[in-house]
Write a structure and sequence with these properties.
By secondary structure, this protein is mostly helical. It is about 75% helix and about 0% strand. It contains ten helices and no strands. The longest helix is centred in the N-terminal third of the chain and has 29 residues, at about 10-40. The chain is elongated.
């Protein structure tokens, strides 16, 4: 077999181009969904932002729903509760969420969309149900209370994110990470592990 001009879809160079295209599409989609919301964001605008033809977006993701699901795919990688002292779970969660909000625009985009769009809200609910609830189930004193306790912890984490990364309240933005952890960790800890009031 001599060198053929036909593109081998399994070749490393084609895979690299494909990966680069997907990365550009997802980055443009996150920005567009965050700026315009789910309803107003269009495949055409996202493709333009990514400097590609709209047909490429459709090729990779099928439709806007598929693109949205891929663009806001989030793996929180929360610490295993069994790997931490029970009294330190609040600090670990607040620290991890700060890392996520500051390093990953996906959660910020999802929060913006989720505040105004049902698909975004359902996606955010799913992330918390699938990834935060198991933590609450392992550490709370009464497993039946785990959903309420996880929801209360989410009020703190999402409230922080909304005021620091979306609405950008100056006093919240000005807080150092250590201050945020010192203020929020005891509250998240109490919600998850304290006896019922």
């Amino acid at each position: 077999m001599n060198g053929s001009n036909s593109a081998d879809s399994g070749s490393p160079s084609v895979r690299r181009r494909s990966d680069a295209t997907r990365t550009a599409i997802l980055a443009a989609a996150r920005e567009r969904f965050a700026a315009d919301g789910y309803e107003r964001a269009t495949i055409r605008a996202i493709a333009k932002d990514a400097s590609i033809d709209p047909s490429m977006v459709m090729r990779y993701y099928g439709n806007k729903e598929g693109l949205f699901a891929a663009a806001v795919s989030v793996e929180l990688e929360l610490p295993e509760p069994g790997s931490l002292p029970r009294h330190d779970i609040g600090r670990a969660l607040v620290t991890r969420f700060l890392d996520l909000w500051e390093e990953n625009e996906v959660l910020t985009a999802l929060l913006r969309v989720g505040a105004t769009n049902q698909a975004g809200a359902e996606r955010m609910q799913g992330i918390f149900r699938e990834q935060v609830m198991p933590v609450a189930l392992r550490v709370c004193p009464d497993p039946e209370q785990a959903p309420a306790r996880a929801a209360l912890a989410a009020t703190q984490l999402l409230g922080l994110a909304l005021t620091r990364y979306v609405l950008r309240f100056p006093p919240t933005v000005a807080l150092a990470r250590g201050e945020i952890v010192a203020w929020l960790a005891p509250t998240v800890q109490r919600y998850l592990t304290a006896p019922s009031p």
